[in-house]
Amino acid sequence: MAQASVLSVRLRSSRAAIRHAWSICAAFLILFAPLPASAQLRGHGGPVRALAIAADGRMAISGGFDQSAILWGIDQGSALAILRFHDGAVNAVAALDGGRFVTASEDGRIAIWQGGRPEPVEVFADHSGPIVALAVSADGTRLASASWDGTAQIRPLAGGPVRVLRGHAGNVNAVAFLADGRLVTGGYDATLRVWPLAETDEPPRVVQLPSPINALAVTPDGEIAAAGADSVVRFLSEDGAIRASVDLATNPVIGLAVSPDGRRVAAATVAGTVALIDKSAAKVAFSLVGPGLPVWSLAFRPDGTELLTGGGDLLVRRWDARTGEPIGPLSMARPADSLAAYKGDHGAEVFRACVACHTLTPEEGHRAGPTLSGVFGRRIATAEGYNFSQALKSLDIVWDARTISKLFEVGPSRYTPGTKMPEQTINDPDDREALVRFLEKATKTQ
């Protein structure tokens, strides 16, 4: 574990906080009233893991740890559709031509969406592990995916055999296409690999780097930008020679994006800053400083004037890429404390670890996990409007003081096999009893 990349560690820990399933929508939902054009884009219930912008620059798609993807009207500042299909975090998204979008997930599936359609028009499940990155070839005909099953895949979008690329020792974290159609991959094994254009016996060119690779990007002039756990962004030629390196101090890099003109590379870090790097000079021109939470994803609008970022604050933020200034307010109002009315209640303090995933009242609705409103006396996996796994639906459990206490005594994975609830136990019987008493009164519906 000590050798794992920051991406692997951070993804797993962030996923663990919000791994309950969300309901599958029967149609695209227009849930948010339009906001002023300067507003940040708010709608995800978990960190924003992935971003992509359509070729016309008007729409963006984001993927979140909340297992949803959202299609945004950027200038309207509003969500146009919420796409719920995956059974895990949406780790990667891409925009295709013809108003199509792609999502890929922790569940190992890739879904292709057509604007205006309520369900994916195509679904692929060739990977056997979480998919964490996507790339589209320059001519728009092929889709590449990187997975923690140790492979990358290249899929012809018009149909045909899928090419599976094996050779990395461990997770493949990043993929990018070169202009001539060759694929570049980077992974946990700290190797960058440039694969031959055709499937032959010729091995890939392998470049060993000092630390695991979390992100890749290809610039218009053919250079490869690679970055990862050691906080260094490296610029390499197609033959693997390193031209320059930019050290971002102690901030491991988890995302890269290249400006449309190729002059700048944006590097997102776990510390929450985004460095705008002058590529030719190999120096940081300026940094975007947000609320201090990890920035997982970023994308330039096609005219290069604006950069969108997504991160641990659950927002898609808009920035002036020329000045580094935020577009709209940088900070959001602190949400109301839902437990303020229970100040001094020990059970409420124990429950604070649960508020990221669960609400207590029907008005608040579902988050990453189902609302606990009315949970006492309710059979497991029957909360209306929430998508539970078949494994949970088959269990014979009714929630009451005894069963809730038992859940936290032995842990979710043992008591409710098949759950996506993060593994956690409460060892102190007094803490368990306080939590149960609190839930019994706070979740009453009448």
Automatic annotation (TrEMBL):
<feature type="repeat" description="WD">
    <location>
        <begin position="165"/>
        <end position="195"/>
    </location>
</feature>
<dbReference type="InterPro" id="IPR009056">
    <property type="entry name" value="Cyt_c-like_dom"/>
</dbReference>
<dbReference type="Pfam" id="PF00034">
    <property type="entry name" value="Cytochrom_C"/>
</dbReference>
<protein>
    <recommendedName>
        <fullName>Cytochrome c domain-containing protein</fullName>
    </recommendedName>
</protein>
<feature type="repeat" description="WD">
    <location>
        <begin position="41"/>
        <end position="82"/>
    </location>
</feature>
<dbReference type="InterPro" id="IPR002327">
    <property type="entry name" value="Cyt_c_1A/1B"/>
</dbReference>
<dbReference type="GO" id="GO:0009055">
    <property type="term" value="F:electron transfer activity"/>
</dbReference>
<dbReference type="InterPro" id="IPR036909">
    <property type="entry name" value="Cyt_c-like_dom_sf"/>
</dbReference>
<keyword id="KW-0853">WD repeat</keyword>
<keyword id="KW-0249">Electron transport</keyword>
<dbReference type="InterPro" id="IPR036322">
    <property type="entry name" value="WD40_repeat_dom_sf"/>
</dbReference>
<dbReference type="Pfam" id="PF00400">
    <property type="entry name" value="WD40"/>
</dbReference>
<keyword id="KW-0349">Heme</keyword>
<feature type="repeat" description="WD">
    <location>
        <begin position="288"/>
        <end position="329"/>
    </location>
</feature>
<dbReference type="GO" id="GO:0020037">
    <property type="term" value="F:heme binding"/>
</dbReference>
<keyword id="KW-0408">Iron</keyword>
<keyword id="KW-0813">Transport</keyword>
<dbReference type="InterPro" id="IPR001680">
    <property type="entry name" value="WD40_rpt"/>
</dbReference>
<feature type="domain" description="Cytochrome c">
    <location>
        <begin position="342"/>
        <end position="443"/>
    </location>
</feature>
<dbReference type="GO" id="GO:0046872">
    <property type="term" value="F:metal ion binding"/>
</dbReference>
<keyword id="KW-0479">Metal-binding</keyword>
<dbReference type="InterPro" id="IPR015943">
    <property type="entry name" value="WD40/YVTN_repeat-like_dom_sf"/>
</dbReference>
